[in-house]
Amino acid sequence: xxxxxxxxxxxxxxxxxxxxxxxxxxxxxxYESKLEEVCGRTRVGKEIMHRAVKRAYQxxxxxxxxxxxxxxxx
Length: 74
Known about the structure:
Elements (H helix, E strand, L loop, with lengths): L2 H15 L6 H19 L3 H19 L1 H8 L1
């Protein structure tokens, strides 16, 4: 997996997991700063990159579901 995408996925995951917690805002700010860094280097729009991260995150979450993972191995 691309290192930058992995970093964004982990930052987004940290925010999503703690979305209701007191430090959620700090985690979202961290994610936004990483997103801006990647967008600046790749010249991809922030909204497009955010949608790509959310899509990749959804697929990543599907792989965490044992029944889904088992169906792929068959």
